[in-house]
Design goal:
The chain is mainly alpha-helical and 446 residues long. Helices cover 74% and strands 0% of the residues.
């Protein structure tokens, strides 16, 4: 076993969410014919994840990685009579096996490069610059395995269709299953730093997936499907952070997103009922262009005051850029509260939330960096390619933030109707994947 800040953090996270999901499932599936079998597969999945996050050698890491996917497959096909559930499980099975192959080859190459399967020795040697071309190739394969595990574009389709499974499964995915790709990259951070080209690919794919998922999310009418697309976007942002070599922040992202999204899935049914019970919900405050502009200026001011109070100028360029993206998130939060028709109470509330979010982000960032000091490497100085990707990311996230904040203004415009339809269908990437595997049957993939 490997016990450090990373494994302990993941251990506590998986145990907490797993305990909550098990308690929820005992009530949610009460009376189901196969409740006992479901609970058994749920516990086996959690056990495999716990072995994964505490693995101290490559053999245990690979074995638990594969076991997690195989046990999850049994949960995905819990309702075998549902074609959608079988289709999602089939796509997940195919992508998982490709990821397994990549990880196995990467493990073999790492063993050959460093002459050991002990993860501590591998990371120690990689931090000193050892490994050569075998380690660089292994880093690329680790990245491929992580991308496939965390539902990155264009292999994200199975995650958006997992709604055909029981709700506890959707919450369980955030207990070290869907975010296991991020954990893999964080665990082998020192190896990845040997391959700047691999990090650049992670930035490109993760950033695009984050933007793509966040736009598609706005077009979904189903609460759970919208949450699934949100997870696609969040996993993309986690990969994006790893590509920027901000591994402590990626670990913080895993924890924060897992807690938030597991709660969101488990509470979705009650939330829908509560909203449906409101007979007269009242008008919705739609921000205009002026309100969005005020929101961005206010977010910039909050960012400057809070960020500089936490020593932002002394952080790496990558951390500074990631913190700048906070401006866009805070502006999106403020936009509705700054709408002309918004009541003063809503304006004050969103302003308070914006400040609290900014303080919380920088405070947790400092805590994560401190706790992982010496365990995870700091971000290296960016080269020309990294600078180009950082600038492109800032421009892209800024544009999408503006589109999201003004979404009610243009969503139903005739010129945007076609785009909205294409986004609602995920740019048809999932349909292409369905056609590609159309000849596969669930029986042949099990």
């Amino acid at each position: 076993m490997r016990v450090d800040a990373v494994s302990i953090t993941m251990l506590v996270l998986v145990t907490l969410i797993g305990w909550i999901v098990l308690r929820y499932a005992s009530i949610y599936l009460d009376g189901e014919d196969w409740q006992g079998a479901f609970t058994g597969w749920l516990c086996l999945t959690l056990a495999a994840v716990l072995l994964l996050v505490t693995a101290g050698n490559l053999i245990q890491l690979v074995a638990s990685w594969i076991a997690t996917s195989l046990f999850l497959h049994r949960l995905l096909v819990f309702y075998r009579e549902r074609p959608g559930a079988r289709r999602a499980a089939r796509k997940k099975f195919i992508t998982a096996r490709l990821g397994d192959i990549s990880l196995i080859i990467a493990a073999v190459l790492l063993s050959m490069a460093y002459g050991t399967s002990d993860i501590s020795q591998i990371l120690r040697a990689a931090r000193s610059g050892e490994g050569g071309s075998l380690a660089v190739t292994a880093a690329g394969l680790l990245a491929v395995s992580a991308l496939l595990k965390s539902a990155q574009f264009p292999t994200h389709g199975w995650l958006t269709e997992v709604m055909e499974t029981p709700t506890p499964v959707s919450a369980l995915l955030h207990a070290g299953v869907i975010n296991a790709g991020g954990f893999l990259l964080i665990r082998f951070a020192d190896v990845l730093l040997l391959a700047p080209g691999v990090l650049a690919v992670l930035v490109a794919i993760g950033g695009f997936t984050a933007l793509f998922g966040s736009m598609v999310m706005l077009t979904q009418s189903s609460v759970k499907t919208s949450l699934a697309w949100s997870t696609v976007a969040q996993m993309g942002f986690m990969i994006f952070e790893c590509g920027l070599a901000l591994f402590p922040l990626a670990l913080l992202h895993i924890v924060a997103h897992s807690l938030y999204k597991a709660h969101a899935f488990l509470a979705s049914g009650g939330t829908v009922e509560a909203v449906a019970a409101i007979r007269r919900p009242g008008p919705v405050a739609i921000p205009g262009v002026a309100a969005v502009a005020r929101a961005f200026l206010s977010a910039l001011l909050i960012f400057a005051v809070v960020g500089f109070a936490f020593g932002l100028p002394h952080k790496s360029p990558q951390a500074f850029a990631l913190s700048a993206i906070l401006i866009f998130g805070v502006a999106y939060m403020l936009a509705q509260g700054f709408a002309d028709t918004a009541p003063r109470a809503l304006t004050r509330r969103t302003a308070a939330y914006a400040v609290a979010t900014s303080v919380g982000y920088f405070a947790l960032q400092a805590v994560a960096t401190h706790l992982t000091a010496g365990v995870l490497p700091p971000a290296p100085a960016p080269g020309a390619l990294e600078w180009a990707l950082i600038i492109l990311a800032l421009l892209s996230f800024g544009l999408v933030a503006i589109l999201q904040a003004t979404f009610p203004l243009w969503a139903y415009h005739p010129a945007a109707t076609g785009l909205r339809v294409h986004l609602a269908n995920g740019l048809y990437a999932n349909a292409a994947f369905d056609r590609l595997i159309g000849g596969w049957s669930l029986r042949s993939a099990s």
